[in-house]
Amino acid sequence: MTTSSPETSADPPDAGAELVARAREGDLDAFNALVDEHERAVYNLCLRMVGTPAAAEDGTQEAFFAAWRAIGTFRGANFRAWLLRIAANACTDELRRRARRPAVSLDAPAPGATAPVEPPDPAPGPESAALRSEQHARMQAALLRLPADQRFAVVMCDIHGYAYEEIAAAAAVSLGTVKSRIARGREKLRALLAGEREQTGGRERL
């Protein structure tokens, strides 16, 4: 149920309305079609929220299981926002479970290591690709140090390109709260990456 396709901007939020209506009536084929439609967005969100592909796969699977169990209760107009909120909650729960575990998970980054991210574009030369991969890894490590609500807002806005209104719908908060979380998250990211620049002399940006 997983994918590692590149991140993309949001599709129209009302797409698949007929599939949603059929899925609410218990049509599993319709729900599977919704999985195909939204799987990439859910996986990419989970990857940024939890930091490792294996954990992102688990989060994606759990999000769709939870969505199927709760599809009969869906009453809104924006299925994707509802689904992404479920995915974010699944990722938050997974991070809490990991924090309570005394042993280090096999797919968790080793102490001092940065989390793996998508492979670099094969087009650049080896040195350029290595630098880009390192910068992405530092960015992901910094993202994982943000509070979950700020990380979700920053990832949705600055990485996936969602509008403030859809982020607010996905997070079930006001527009002002979303803007505040993004501003605070960006400020903390700048501070974290400034520390990295002092050590490496590199430059990172969202």
Word description of this protein:
The protein is mostly helical. The protein has a single domain (17-200), classed as RNA polymerase sigma factor, region 2, helix turn helix motif (Rna Polymerase Sigma Factor, Chain: A, Orthogonal Bundle), CATH 1.10.1740.10. Helix content is 66%, strand content 0%. It is built from 8 helices and no strands. The longest helix has 26 residues, at 175-200. The chain is globular.
| Unreliable parts | 2-15, 103-122
Based on Cα principal axes, name the global outline.
globular
| Element order: H for helix, E for strand | HHHHHHHH
Q: If you consult CATH, what is the topology? A: Rna Polymerase Sigma Factor, Chain: A
Number of β-strand runs: 0
Keyword list:
mainly alpha; 206 residues; single chain; Rna Polymerase Sigma Factor, Chain: A; disordered N terminus
In short:
The protein has 206 residues and is mainly alpha-helical. It contains eight helices and no strands.
Write the SSE topology:
Blueprint: H1 17-24, H2 28-50, H3 53-70, H4 79-100, H5 126-143, H6 148-159, H7 164-171, H8 175-200
